[in-house]
Amino acid sequence: MRIGDLSAATGASARSLRYYEEQGLLASTRSGGGQRHYPSTAVDRVSLIQSLLSAGLNSAAILDVLPCISNEAIRTPWLADRLTSELDRVNKQIEDLHRTRDILAGLVEEYRVDQPRSQETAS
Amino acid sequence: MRIGDLSAATGASARSLRYYEEQGLLASTRSGGGQRHYPSTAVDRVSLIQSLLSAGLNSAAILDVLPCISNEAIRTPWLADRLTSELDRVNKQIEDLHRTRDILAGLVEEYRVDQPRSQETAS
DNA sequence: CTTGACCCTCACACGGATGTCAAGTTTTAG
DNA sequence: CTAAAACTTGACATCCGTGTGAGGGTCAAG
């Protein structure tokens, strides 16, 4: 598939896909004219990148972590520590987010008591 | 308390506190010489701002939402929708983060099987 | 009054993923 | 063959909370 197809399949802009490649996160082969071609597995790869990005890992961190998915050989103890520390970070982030959610939920609830126009936006 | 005290109490830099004020999120009175003074309630206020910021609300969104905490009068139906939509966003973010955490946790686990040097970094 | 800690207001810089524009090339449909 | 659609590289712009530095003012203690 070409970059437009991958973009459509993942929701990532072509710009972002080129950026991922530039950062070493995503590989592509080139056609004779220089256009990128991706295997269908690239869709999952991009999804994974997007997940990690939205979890607050930057591209360098992802680069550290991603290879261990595809390449068992490079699993160093250092990498385990890296993974664990990222995991801790994400866990903490989830905790924080839970607290914030409770704040917001409390406000919504409090509001609904005053003006009962239920919208049923259940969690 | 002065800005240095509030900074120490909240962990937010003085720069950030001034920024919050500039964005209308945080009020202060000024001494004769122009220095900021805060009531002790400002500590909670700043904590709240920090929570919302880290939940991905930008200062404009917080400005929309924060007043309803201190001022009951301005609770419009529009505000309820705003709150609900931010809540939905945060909930979705939590979901995504859970998935990402599982990915990372899976990697850590997978790794530990191969190289059993337990570090006991429990979640 | 003097000194040192603290504070003031600009104003510029950054990080990092993404948007966007320009000028040129490749691919595909007709 | 030709025109349109899709792609290429390169460069600059944007967002936005925060860092940082300059140049100067304030405040409390000695």
Molecular structure report:
The structure is a homodimer of 123-residue chains. With 123 residues, chain A is mainly alpha-helical. Chain A has 2 domains: 1-56, Multidrug-efflux Transporter Regulator, Chain: A, Domain 2 (Orthogonal Bundle), CATH 1.10.1660; 76-123. Helices cover 64% and strands 3% of the residues of chain A. Chain A has a two-stranded antiparallel sheet. The relative contact order of chain A is 0.09. Residues 117-123 of chain A have low confidence and may be disordered. Chains A and B meet through helix 3 and helix 6 of A and helix 3 and helix 6 of B. Chain A binds a DNA duplex (30 and 30 nucleotides) through helix 2. Chains A, B: InterPro entries: DNA-bd_dom_put_sf (IPR009061), MerR-type_HTH_dom (IPR000551), MerR_fam (IPR047057). Chains A, B: It comes from Paractinoplanes aksuensis. Chains A, B: Residues 1-68 form the HTH merR-type domain. Chains A, B: Keywords: DNA-binding. Chains A, B: This is MerR family transcriptional regulator.
